[in-house]
Write a structure and sequence with these properties.
alpha+beta; 5-stranded mixed beta sheet
């Protein structure tokens, strides 16, 4: 009986820890960030860092606007350097260090783009408002 209780407690701790570390909502974050979004001319630039995962995990962006997703790497040795954006059929191998620009056509209000590493371990989302 005591071993069963210990096993259940250990399983709950492992599941809770994994949900905390990976996030349980779209992009693994609540609220989202606008700090990584800026306008240049009529184009929206979204900066996402790739390293040991992606940051920020959730970006709030302006809908119906031409957009460039600027992926920035600095010594990225994880699978985050192999980026996929399924909705746009994008697959990019990011450089170890540098920036990669990905053009995103204007997205409708309420739509969300999700970026994933090649293994599906790391993700980020861009929600268009």
């Amino acid at each position: 009986m005591k071993q069963t209780i210990i096993s259940i407690a250990l399983a709950a701790a492992l599941i809770g820890g994994s949900l905390y570390l990976t996030g349980s909502s779209a992009g693994g974050a609540t609220g989202g960030s606008r700090e990584n979004v800026r306008m240049e001319g009529g184009t929206q630039i979204i900066l996402v860092s790739a390293g040991n995962g992606y940051s920020p995990r959730l970006t709030l962006a302006k809908a119906d606007t031409p957009t460039i997703l600027r992926m920035e790497t600095a010594g990225a040795f994880s699978c985050a350097s192999a980026l996929t954006i399924p909705k746009l059929d994008v697959r990019k191998n990011l450089p170890l260090t540098g920036t990669t620009d990905i053009e995103i056509p204007p997205q409708k209000t309420g739509s969300t783009l999700q970026g994933l590493c090649a293994m599906g371990m790391y993700n980020f989302a861009i929600k268009f408002e």
